[in-house]
Amino acid sequence: METNSTKKIAVIGCGNLGTAILEGLLSSGNFNGSSITITKRNVESLGKYRDQGVKITTDNRKAVAESQIIVVALKPHNIVTILNEVKDEIRADHIIVSLATGVSLTTIEEVVNKDVAIFRAMPNTATEVKESITCICGNSDNQDSIKEVKSLFNVLGETVVINEDLMESATVLGACGIAFVLRFIRGMIQGGIEIGFDAKTAGLIVHQTVKGAAELLIQNKEHPEYEIDKVTTPRGCTITGLNEMEHNGFSSALIKGIVSSYEKIEN
């Protein structure tokens, strides 16, 4: 796999998502800590990364000046302010990658006001274990720039390039989706406890079951219903459980939750 290991990267605003990305980059083995600079207003919580050679600073301008790829991991309401702060340090050869939900490429272009390759990327917190799905869109069709950004996030999981008008949908399905799946897993564990397992054993069984189900779909490239049909027998316990869940609105509640999250972003 090709990587960005020779590129200097700045992660501006190293909060929860920025830290998850940093953890993924460092644990991938493809990046030296010395090639990464991270910034945060309060850097005390980032001190442990110094031992891995990561540069830690509160100076966003310096971080940008010394980097080639700028990963902007700020809250949406802060991004324009910080970009205005650092825009004089942005060069034409920079690649800017914004992780901010709802902040368009056009908004960033208006602030930077230079012919710079700008991308939006929406990973999820599974970057920490290199199993993220990252959706990417950009203002540039330069294949080298696209390759650079994909290579950066490929070490954190899988990437897919989409149209910008789907980025909010990607936020819900891929990023919020982590929480939706975890809530489902929690419910499975609770059910396991109710039918006799201790919490630890129930967790082990459920975690591996969910992982196995995902791998079946990924490796076999089949529709979920195909795999469901393989484990449902006439008058069996699987179909009984599935029907009870559907009678209580399982699929409907999940779809409504996804749509509600999307409407929240849109509003």
In terms of topology, how is this protein built?
Blueprint: E1 9-12, H1 16-28, E2 36-39, E3 55-57, H2 60-65, E4 69-72, H3 76-86, E5 95-98, H4 105-112, E6 117-122, E7 132-138, H5 143-154, E8 157-161, H6 167-194, H7 199-220, H8 224-231, H9 237-247, H10 250-266
Parallel strand pairs: 1-2, 1-4, 2-3, 4-5, 5-6, 7-8
Antiparallel strand pairs: 6-7
What coarse outline follows from CA principal-axis ratios?
Answer: elongated
Radius of gyration: 21 Å
Strand content: 5-15%
Proportion of helical residues = 40-55%
Architecture per CATH nomenclature, i.e. the level-2 architecture of the largest domain: 3-Layer(aba) Sandwich
Count of separate DSSP helical elements:
10
pLDDT under 50 segments (min length 5)? none
Structural commentary:
The chain has 267 residues and is an alpha/beta fold. Helices cover 51% and strands 14% of the residues. The protein has helices at 16-28, 60-65, 76-86, 105-112, 143-154, 167-194, 199-220, 224-231, 237-247, 250-266, and strands at residues 9-12, 36-39, 55-57, 69-72, 95-98, 117-122, 132-138, 157-161. The chain has an eight-stranded mixed β-sheet with strand order 3-2-1-4-5-6-7-8, sandwiched between helices. α5 links the parallel β7 (132-138) and β8.
Task: Give a short overview.
By secondary structure, this protein is α/β, with parallel strands linked by helices. Helices cover 51% and strands 14% of the residues. An eight-stranded mixed beta sheet has the order 3-2-1-4-5-6-7-8, sandwiched between helices.
